[in-house]
Write a structure and sequence with these properties.
Blueprint (H helix, E strand, L loop, with lengths): L12 H9 L5 H15 L4 H5 L1 E12 L2 E5 L7 E4 L4 E6 L2 E8 L5 E6 L2 E11 L3 E7 L11 E9 L5
Antiparallel strand pairs: 1-2, 1-3, 1-9, 3-4, 4-5, 5-6, 6-7, 7-8, 8-9
Length: 160
């Protein structure tokens, strides 16, 4: 039986803490909690979801409270992620190849000549949609500035 005690707004902080510390937990509850924690901490394999060709649908840019969404010129870039860890970025007839890395959970890094050139936080990734956020350097010196961009991608389907 799980007992916490009666906690009301009138109960003092001491009594509340004392009540929480006096919780009696059944032995099986510890095992269930351990399994739930391990399940929550497991990471899924993002490398399978990212494979394929993606096009940018829009880019949201934020700087110190001001944001704008660009949807017109972003259609030019396409990113093709290969199972080998290589990404080919194509735009206006030009292709640039880089290595990508997903070894840190929810982080996508790009490398050229073994030097990291860019890093994105993966906000969403599934079979049809990818959303990446990149924190950017402030434009002016001084603190208390926030600047980032969010890129929205959709997967390019190959006609069969």
């Amino acid at each position: 039986m799980l007992t916490i005690g009666k906690i009301t707004p009138a109960t003092g902080v001491y009594q509340t803490l004392r009540s929480l510390l006096l919780v009696r937990i059944q032995p099986w509850a510890t095992s269930v909690a351990a399994v739930l924690i391990l399940y929550a901490c497991t990471s899924r394999d993002l490398s399978k979801d990212i494979r394929g060709t993606w096009k940018i649908d829009s880019v949201y840019t934020f700087y110190n409270g001001f944001g704008s969404m660009e949807t017109t010129i972003v259609d030019l870039e396409q990113y093709t992620y290969l199972p080998t860890g290589q990404v080919d970025v194509s735009w206006s007839g030009t292709t640039r190849s880089m290595r990508y890395d997903l070894s840190i959970q929810d982080t996508l890094k790009y490398f050229e000549d073994e030097r990291e050139v860019s890093r994105y936080q993966i906000l969403e990734l599934d079979n049809n949609r990818m959303v990446l956020r990149k924190d950017k350097q402030p434009l002016f010196s001084g603190g208390r500035q926030e600047r980032y961009e969010i890129r929205y991608f959709s997967k390019v389907r190959v006609a069969k």
